[in-house]
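Let us work through a complete example step by step.
Step 1: write down the sequence.
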Amino acid sequence: MTRGKKLCCVDKANVLETSRLWRETVQAMEKDYPEVEVSYEFVDAVAMRLVQWPNSYDVLITENLFGDILTDEASVISGSMGLMPSASVGTENALFEPIHGSYPQATGLNIANPMATILSAAMLFEHFGLKAEGIAIRNAVNRALEEGMVTEDLADGGNSYGTKQVGDWLAACI
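Step 2: predict the structure and record it as tokens.
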């Protein structure tokens, strides 16, 4: 309701029973939100269209496995998995994290891109109605990208900085 009021339910209802249940659940809820335009698409079609026309989507909802695959695929559009925040929002609880999870392989190496984690925090603030705080975080990340304060995954042969440097720069900017 707080975005573009365009929702795409992603499933594989033509072959998976769990997807049929997923679709039926969304269809049952659809009548409660008449102002939201809801579409239903199979995951394989979404995977293709997401790369070709990413702007044709606003919000995708899907089961965990498909969501995992689609978010990794979508990270190519932005240039790095290190830029992709995510949220799993339920009726009582919400979890905010980068799509890549905790990335334990980078522990102590100062190589992880902190931006997805920081953008996940922006989503958390916005979830709790702290819009200005979320915008401040997003603006800092955008400024870092514009000014080249990036980790190696985004440097494209230019200067790159470590996790700590990027994080400290973003904190100071916010």
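Step 3: interpret the result. The chain has two domains: 1-78, 81-174.
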